[in-house]
């Protein structure tokens, strides 16, 4: 695969993620209005597989999105998956219009990063929706404990 094709595919992916973030913003506004929830779900269905949306909503319903907050305002997200707990970084590049995200689950590595079949995994979608809907389980955490939690996901 040539560098031009990789760059073009990368640029297309960034544009798609940018559009998805914009779509999620509009869906948030729609979800607050009880009579148009179906329209918000229809917008999500236009860009994500039904299985991803249903799985993300199921995680939120089971209160599986943990938002750890430090006293100085730093946030750290973890999602209780079916087989493990995954760390989600929903906003890695705040300066980027596209806004990058990352999840430690195998599905993200394969479907998003390697094969580029999906824009995000169910865990990233669950964090985005739960955070926007104020449905995260908020847990205060000390600075040192947060450092240990993050360091636990970094290979030496």
What is this structure, in a nutshell?
The protein has six helices and five strands. The chain has 156 residues and is of the alpha+beta class.
Which characteristics define this entry?
156 residues; alpha+beta; five-stranded mixed sheet; 6 helices
Q: Indicate the structural class.
A: alpha+beta
What are the segments in which pLDDT stays under 50 over at least 5 consecutive residues?
Answer: 1-8, 95-99
Distance between the termini: 31 Å
> What's the total count of β strands?
5
Arithmetic mean of pLDDT: 77
Q: Which band does the percent of strand residues land in?
A: 5-15%
Question: What's the tally of helices?
Answer: 6
The ordered string of helix (H) and strand (E) elements is HHHEEEEHHEH
Cα shape? globular
Profile the largest sheet. Answer: 5 strands, mixed
Secondary-structure blueprint of this entry?
Blueprint: H1 3-31, H2 37-45, H3 50-61, E1 65-69, E2 75-80, E3 85-89, E4 102-103, H4 106-114, H5 122-132, E5 137-140, H6 143-151
Parallel strand pairs: 1-5
Antiparallel strand pairs: 1-2, 2-3, 3-4
Please give a structural write-up.
This protein has 156 residues and is of the alpha+beta class. The chain is built from six helices and five strands; from the N terminus they run αααββββααβα. A five-stranded mixed beta sheet has the order 4-3-2-1-5. Strand 1 (65-69) and strand 2 form a beta hairpin. The relative contact order is 0.17.
